[in-house]
């Protein structure tokens, strides 16, 4: 059920869906997605769905994780990444293979606790988890070579642009019912914004719980 074959099928599907970065495909083939979801759902872990992870939150479908990871992989420096919305830590584990250090923020205490244990068990030791409202980013540790938000902001989070290093990318979903994936890139001077595909994420919420 959670065999290597199921994982291989997921990689083949990602390739067919247009994911072409071999490093991302290799990393996603190495990370046991079933270890991030409830045991009762483990048999569905490699299908292309989002799945519940408790606390009314979801783990994104493999395609969108791959897509966002591929966009971040293209930045010139792989030193420091910021993730807003740790959830079950699946995206975190992928980022931890791409970047030297991952700073990740989650607003739900129970998820932080579970995910910290899970990542330790899986031997992911370069991710720093924080229980906080991540919507303002982490100005005290900026600049980041990349920033990813895995919950949908109601409006473009322009205040995070200043936390990017030159060449850095901010990848995020924006909108409420109708959401779109976007990317802001920091150039030597100024920024560019690219509109990508339609997506469906849980909302970015204020405060902690
Ligand atoms: N990348 C995650 C996706 C989790 S869903 C994964 O692979 O599992 C998005 C997560 O963002 C949820 O866990 C939610 O609690 C969290 N979140 C929402 N608003 C937030 C905020 N303001 N700060 C930090 N985390 C937030």
From TrEMBL:
- Supply the HAMAP family for this chain: PIMT
Question: What Gene Ontology biological process does one annotation of this record name?
Answer: protein repair
- UniProt keyword Mitochondrion present: no
Query: What EC number(s) are associated with this protein in UniProt?
Result: 2.1.1.77
Catalyzed reaction equations: [protein]-L-isoaspartate + S-adenosyl-L-methionine = [protein]-L-isoaspartate alpha-methyl ester + S-adenosyl-L-homocysteine
Q: What is the purpose of this protein?
A: Catalyzes the methyl esterification of L-isoaspartyl residues in peptides and proteins that result from spontaneous decomposition of normal L-aspartyl and L-asparaginyl residues. It plays a role in the repair and/or degradation of damaged proteins.
Which gene specifies this protein's sequence?
Answer: pcm
Alphabetical keyword list: Cytoplasm, Methyltransferase, S-adenosyl-L-methionine, Transferase
Where does the secretion signal sit in this chain?
Answer: none
Q: Name one Pfam family in it.
A: PCMT
Q: Which organism is it from?
A: Deefgea piscis
InterPro entries given for it? Answer: PCMT, SAM-dependent_MTases_sf
Active-site residues, Swiss-Prot/TrEMBL:
60
Localization terms from the record: Cytoplasm
The protein's superkingdom reads: Bacteria
Q: What is this protein called?
A: Protein-L-isoaspartate O-methyltransferase
Q: Which GO terms describe its cellular component?
A: cytoplasm
Provide a Gene Ontology MF annotation, just one.
Answer: protein-L-isoaspartate (D-aspartate) O-methyltransferase activity
The Swiss-Prot or TrEMBL record describes its family as follows:
Belongs to the methyltransferase superfamily. L-isoaspartyl/D-aspartyl protein methyltransferase family.
């Amino acid at each position: 059920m959670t065999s290597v074959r199921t994982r291989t099928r997921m990689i083949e599907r990602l390739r067919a869906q247009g994911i072409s970065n071999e490093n991302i495909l290799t990393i996603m083939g190495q990370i046991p997605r079933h270890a991030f979801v409830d045991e009762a759902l483990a048999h569905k872990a490699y299908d292309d769905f989002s799945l519940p992870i408790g606390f009314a939150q979801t783990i994104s479908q493999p395609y969108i994780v791959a897509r966002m990871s591929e966009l971040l992989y293209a930045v010139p420096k792989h030193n420091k990444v910021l993730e807003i919305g740790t959830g079950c830590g699946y995206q975190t584990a992928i980022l931890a293979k791409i970047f030297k250090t991952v700073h990740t923020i989650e607003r739900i205490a129970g998820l932080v606790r579970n995910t910290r244990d899970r990542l330790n068990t899986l031997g992911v030791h370069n991710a720093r988890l924080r229980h906080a409202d991540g919507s303002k980013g982490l100005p005290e540790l900026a600049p980041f070579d990349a920033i990813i938000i895995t919950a949908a902001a109601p409006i473009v989070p322009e205040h995070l642009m200043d936390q990017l290093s030159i060449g850095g990318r901010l990848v995020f979903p924006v909108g409420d019912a109708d959401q779109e994936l976007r990317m802001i890139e920091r150039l030597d001077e100024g920024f560019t914004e690219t509109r990508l595909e339609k997506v469906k994420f849980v909302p970015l919420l204020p405060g902690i719980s």
